[in-house]
Amino acid sequence: MAFKNLYDFIDALEKKGELRRISAEVDPVLEITEITDRMSKPAGPALLFEKVKGSPFPLLINAFGSFGRMEMALNCTSLDDVAAKIDGLIKMQPPRGLMDKIRMLLQLKDIASLMPKQVSRAACQEQVFDSGPMLDLLPIQTCWPGDGGPFITLPLVITKDPETGIQNMGMYRMHKYDNSSTGMHWQYNKDGARHYEKYKKLGKRMDVAVALGGIPAVTYAASAPLPPDVPELLFAGFLESRAIEVVKGKTVDLLVPAESDFIIEGYVDPGDTRIEGPFGDHTGFYSAADIYPIFHVTCITARRGAVYPSTIVGKPPMEDCYMAKATERLFLPMLKFVIPEVVDMNLPMEGVFHNCALVSINKEFPGQAKKVINAFWGLGQMSSTKSVVVFDKDIDLNDSSTVLWKLLNNVDPRRDMIFSEGPLDALDHSAPYANFGGKVGIDATRKTKEEGMGRPWPDEIVMSDDIKKLVDRRWKEYGF
């Protein structure tokens, strides 16, 4: 079912036994993190902390922390079902006859109907806080002992391109400095940073809005690696099969999701910066403090009965890993469209998204695996991937034992490994320089003579089908 807002989602989680309420008062400084970490590692339930020290608002965390809850959030029974819908759009063929034209027009009409719909009144603006306590009202967590302070960890940061007027919505952590300002962690390759650089060149103040909570699919969409200028709210509408309602901000010239629990409005001045961090990050290590723009809050609006959504990141597996796995499945069709020989992909949780990509391909010619490795390093956010390992199509990439067996037995280091260097994720602490360092590509496929294999490749040991069937029939006779 589609969820109208976060309250609907909480209600559904509770009915399915996927939510635990905590009525005891808890401290947002470290205590909530320790409780959540113990629950998230075994894919435990979502947690609703009803009484958070220092705040009138309850806090929801680990809401996306399992495959089942991710499927609920995205209104599907299987992530592969959503991927199939995306695949159908990508493979839309030019119409050949009248009926094809009608079908295409209907499909295009359906897509157009999913564009965000502006409304004049919205639940997210039922309460307005524009003086006195603003950020101090929110139960913003200090997650880990070495953090530079409290951080908003699940924000949907909305900005607008000053040239095109197209809005972007991304998820960037926000270091709370005081009641009315935060850091804005725009990494160099993010759309928010691209917009900010344009405002700097124009010497103009940049309006920013931050949505918290609301429709779960909208929260996920902000984290999705969409192409530049593809609206995240359109993608959320696609996931929801309905247009997402938006409303104009009270103090900013931006449209914000109408069903959000909170909207933090404000601005960033060109060149106005401050040290942000350190922060206990999804790599399991602290990312270092660095200089980032300052976000100044002008007001906060909220719905009645608002719930503050949060997450923590750290040593995997954690809640963000399930969001990343959803991205892996949903965007696989786009990857296959660009690199047709790709059969499947697995981004292991331990690789924290950017450190490792396991890929299986339909290998048809010598050197194809190395072609795929280089293609990955030329693709959008995949260009930051440090390690790409390519296997034949007959492998289950989720079977870690078989993956390691093939990797350790199929690879000659001198022949099958490519060493390169290029852009890396900003959080990769092993890189010698920020955002730049070494990469490795590994060809773990069967090798041919043309690829430098000087002797025949051995056959893999497989039992004959007739013996398998015989043993299946007699299994109970053996006493098992």
Please state the oligomeric state of the protein chains shown: single chain
Number of contiguous helices: 14
Return residue spans where pLDDT drops below 50 for at least 5 consecutive residues.
none
- CATH architecture classification of the largest domain: Roll
Question: Quick one: CATH class of the largest domain?
Answer: Mainly Beta
Mean pLDDT: 91
- Rg calc: 24 Å
CATH homologous superfamily of the largest domain?
Answer: Electron Transport, Fmn-binding Protein, Chain A
Helix content: 25-40%
Integer tally of domains:
2
Structure classification: alpha+beta
The CATH topology of the largest domain is Pnp Oxidase, Chain A
> How much beta, percentage-wise?
15-25%
Gap between N and C termini:
43 Å
Q: Report on the biggest sheet.
A: 10 strands, antiparallel
Principal-axes shape call: globular
Number of strands: 24
